[in-house]
Write a structure and sequence with these properties.
The complex is a heterodimer of chains A (about 200) and B (about 80). Chain A is mainly beta. Chain A has strands spanning about 1-10, 15-25, 35-50, 50-60, 65-75, 80-90, 90-100, 100-115, 125-140, 145-160, 170, 185-200. Chain A is globular. Chain B has about 80 residues and is mainly beta. In chain B, the strands form two sheets. Chain B has a four-stranded antiparallel β-sheet, with no helix packed on it. In chain B, strand 1 and strand 2 (about 35-45) form a beta hairpin. Classes of the chains: A mainly beta (about 200), B mainly beta (about 80). Chains A and B meet through strand 1, strand 2, strand 4, strand 5 and strand 9 of A and strand 1, strand 4, strand 5 and strand 6 of B.
């Protein structure tokens, strides 16, 4: 359950503390060994109504790995109806509001997934990272309901499985290359994907 | 009650990390034949539970599933994550 507390420090600065306990495991043989945790502190500086910077630090515990993740990004509307969001190094998005019912743009996303692998001796932990580049279109349907289509290409889909992880390892970074040890199984692929989404928005 | 919830949503500026969040997002993604990751999907909620002048507390539970190829040697083709 992600939980966050935001406090407005003054006219320009906001601070946020967040925590995210989670559990990931096999769908059929669900196991409590898949418990993970992350938490952190964010600071956002609203320079103007169209430009906000943010930075922070997150701590993530994934099985036996302790990870410190620096966070930096911005949300910028350089011209009317164009918005740029960067959440480095995980996400970058440029969007354009064609009108009040159609938005379009491009998204770069590092999509990660880690899980415990239950009931198999040879592999215990799964790590997946997709680097996706997509063209998206948001269509307003009725009231605040939107349909979103992403047509994209996975530049890389890396999948690693580990047997036992080194106890109490520490890393600083974004863990975009797997846990800090050699995997017992690895594969990579690339290719097209299509994503469909239904979104309920309170704003435009 | 519905009006109170709507008011809470409107009071919340939805830019906690300088990004826009939505109260409800459901996603489903499928990939090509040669991909070992066959499909992924998620349901993501985002709602305030406490709002005052300078403080906001929000919850954003998320459920995600991922379906892998049968050819992988993990004995499981479906994995889920609950945040």
């Amino acid at each position: 359950m992600n939980m966050a507390w935001r406090h407005q420090l003054n006219k320009h600065w906001n601070a946020a503390i967040f925590s995210s306990p989670s559990i990931s495991s096999g769908f059929v043989n669900f196991s409590s060994n898949g418990l993970q945790w992350s938490s952190g502190l964010m600071l956002a500086y609203r320079k103007s109504p169209v430009l906000t910077y943010f930075l922070g630090m997150a701590y993530s515990y994934q099985f036996s790995n302790n990870l410190l993740i620096p966070i930096a990004g911005l949300n910028w509307s350089p011209i009317s109806r164009v918005n740029l969001v960067a959440d480095l190094p995980f996400r970058g998005q440029v969007s354009w509001d064609l009108n009040s019912k159609i938005q379009t743009g491009f998204l770069y996303l590092n999509n990660r997934f880690t899980s415990y692998i239950p009931n198999i001796q040879q592999y215990n932990y799964l790590w997946i990272n997709e680097r996706n580049l997509s063209w998206f279109t948001n269509l307003k349907m009725i009231r605040n309901w939107w349909l979103k289509f992403d047509l994209g290409y996975s530049i890389s889909r890396e999948l690693y499985a580990y047997d036992q992880l080194t106890r109490h390892s520490w890393q600083i970074g974004s863990q975009l290359n797997g846990f800090n040890q050699d995997p017992a199984y690895e594969s990579s692929s690339k290719g097209l994907f299509l994503q469909c989404s239904i979104i309920y928005k309170m704003k435009k | 009650m519905r009006k109170v919830l709507l008011l809470l949503f409107l009071l919340y500026s939805a830019d906690l990390f300088a990004q826009n969040f939505s109260p409800l997002t459901m996603e489903y993604q499928f990939s090509g034949e040669n991909s070992e990751i066959k499909q992924t999907g998620s349901i993501h909620l985002f709602f305030p539970v406490f709002v005052t002048g300078k403080n906001q507390v929000v919850l954003s539970p998320r459920y995600k599933f991922i379906g892998l190829s049968d050819s992988l040697p993990f004995g499981n083709t479906g994995f889920t994550s609950s945040v």
